[in-house]
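Notes on consecutive records. When two proteins share a document, each keeps its own sequence and its own C-alpha cell line. Never mix them. Below: protein one.
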Amino acid sequence: MTAYAALSAHFSRLSALSNAIGTLHWDHAAVMPKGAAEKRGESLALLNVLRHDMLTDARVGDWLDAADADNGLGAWERANLREIRRVYTVETAIPADLVAASTRATSACEMAWRDARAASDFKGLLPRLQEVLELQREIGRAKGEKLGLSPYDALLNDYEPGGRSAAIDALFDDLADFLPGFTEEAMAAQARRPALPALEGPFPVETQKALGLKMMAALGFDFDRGRLDVSTHPFCGGSDDDVRITTRYDEADFTSSLMGVLHETGHALYEQGRPRAFMGQPVGEARGMSVHESQSLLIEMQACRSREFLAYAAPVMREAFGGAGPAWEADSMWRRYTRVAPGFIRVDADEVTYPAHVILRYRLEKALIADAMPLAELPAAWAEGMQALLGITPPDDRRGCLQDVHWPSGGWGYFPTYTLGAMTAAQLFDAAVRADADIPAGIARGDFQPLLGWLRANVHGKGSRLSTDELLTEATGRPLDAAVFKTHLARRYLDKA
C-alpha cells in the first residue's frame, strides 16, 4: 500500500467516526431527552477523543511526508494531502484531555442554555458558559502557538481556513459605516408604499411542515439522503448521505419558519452535492463556513426572497393555508420578505440589518476570547452594541445575548462567516445569472435546476480542492468584492440598478 493509499484508508475510517458524532449531535439538539445530557456528553467526549487520537496518529505525519514525494498523484490527491496536513497540524496542537473537557462542557452548557434562554436567565448560565469560554481560550492559545496566530484567529481558522480578523475588521468596519445610512434610505423607500396587509393565522404546524417539505423538494433536496425536524435553534447537521435540517414553528407566523427551512436547505444542498469520488476525504468536505453560509444565504436571500420566487410561491402558500385577499398576493409576499426593520433576533433579521447582528457578535467574541471583557458584562455590552449599531436595546437576555446557541455549544469564531457568506452569496448569484439567463425564469416557475446545476459545477462539486479565494475567483472572476453586495442591496431595496 502506498503512503497516499494508507492516508486515504485512515481518513475514510475517521470519516465514519465523524459521521457517528454528527448524528449524535443532531439527536442531542433535536430529540434527546433532557435527562440524557450527562451521559450523551460522556459519549461524545469519548468519541471526540478517539477521533483526536486518529487525527494525531504519528503515522499520519510519516505518511504525509512519504506521499509528498509521490509524483503520480493528481490535482485532487495533491489537494487532499494539503487538507490532511492542515487538519493534522491544527489537531496536534491540542491534547486529548482538552478535547474531552471541551466536549463535556459544551454538551452540558448547550442543554443549560435551553432553559436559560427560555427563562431569560443569563446569570444562571454564566458558570457553565464561563467554563466553555475558558476552554475555548485554552484551545485558541494552543492552536495559535502552533500556527503563529492570535487565539481568536486560530479559532476562526477552524471555520474559515485562512481567514484573519484583520481582513474581517476592515470589511466589517466599512459595513458598519455604510449600513446605518442605507437602512434609513431603505426604510424611507418602503414607507412611501401602501400599508402592508396583515396575514391572519393561525397557521397549523402540520401545514407549515408540509409546505416546507414541498419547497425543499422544489429546491432539489434529496429525501433519500436527508430529513426535516424541529429544534430550539434551526441548523443543518447529520452525516454524509444523511443530512438533517431543522426549523422551529410559530402558529402565529409561518413566514419565518418557511424561510428557516429554505435557508437550511441551502446548506443541505451543498452537503448533498459534494464530490462523491472524494466523500470521506478532507478534500471532499465543504470548503469552509463562509462558503457554506453563502449557500444557505444564496438560496434564502438571493433566490427565495426575489420577486421571481415569490411569484411562484405565493399561490402555493395561499392554497396551503386557504388564504384569500391582497395579503396573499405575490407583491405583498415580496414586500413582507424584504421589509427592513431593526429587530432583536438575528435569525429573524432582514437582509439589510442582519450584518449588524453579526458585527456585534464578532466584536464581542473577539473581546471575550482576548480576555478584554469579563463574561459577566456581556448582557450590558450586548445592549450597548445593539443600541449603537441598530438603535434598539433588547428588553431581556432572551432577546439579547442568550438568543444564539453558538457560544454555549463551543462555536467561537463562527459568527463572522455569516456576513462573509452573505457577501459571497451576492457575488456567486450575480455570476450565476450572468452565466445562465434562464436562472431567474426557472425560479419564477419553481424550477431550480438551472441554478442548482451552476452551483453543483462551480461550488458544491469543488469540495475543498480550492481555497476560498480561489473558488470565488474561479466562479466569479474576482475575489470577494463588497461592492457586489452593496449593489444587490441598492437594487432590491432602493430600486436602483
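Protein two starts on the next line and is unrelated to protein one.
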Amino acid sequence: MTQTENKRRSWVVGITGASGSVYGVRLTEVLLKQGYDVHIVVSNAGWRVLGEELGWKTAQRELVLSEKFGGHPGSLYYHPVADIGATIASGSYQVEGMVIAPCSMGTLSAVANGSSDNLMTRAADVMLKEGRPLILVPRETPLHAIHLENMLKLARLGVKMIPAMPAFYFHPRTIEDLIDFQVGKVLDMMRIEHELFRRWDGGLAGQAKAAESGTKE
C-alpha cells in the first residue's frame, strides 16, 4: 500500500469467536459502503463462528471475504491473525481507530492485560499506546467478576464498551433491525453518520408531535 492510500479514512475491524459475528460483518459492510477502508482481522475461533452462525465457507478465507464484501467504494484489507508484522501492528501506520465486534472475554482479557500475542491484540494495543479510539462490543452472559474488572480497567483507559444489548423502543420487527441498532450505536461512537435505526423522539409525545406536524403539512 502506498503512502497516499495510507492517508485514506480507514478503520480496523476485529471479529473474535464470541457469538454475534454478524455485528462485525454488518459494521464492515456499512463502512465499506460509506467509502471507508477496512482492515479486517478474524481470530481462528472467529472464523469458526462465521461458519457456524452465518454458514460461511471458510476454507478459502480471502476468497470468501472478497465475495461477501466486494463491490463497495471502500477497500477491504485482510490480515491473518498470526501476521504480527502486518501494517496495523505498527503505530506508525495511520488508521482512525479499531472496533472489535464481537469481542470475546478472552480477547478482552488479553487487551486489558497488554498481552499482544497475535495481530488482533497487538492492533488493539497500538490503539491504546497511540491514543486512538478503541471500541469493544463484549458478548457474553452471565458476566463474572473477572469479566467486569477487565471491562472497568479498559474503560478507565478510555476504551469504549458497547455491549451487545439491543433496545426495543424503536419497535424492531426483524433480527436485522436489532443488528442494525447495535451497529448503529458503534457508528455513533465512531462519529460516523448513519440511518440504521430510528432515534428516540420522546416516546408517545414525540410521535403525537410528528403526527400533528404531518397533518399540518
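For the record: The chain has one domain: 3-216.
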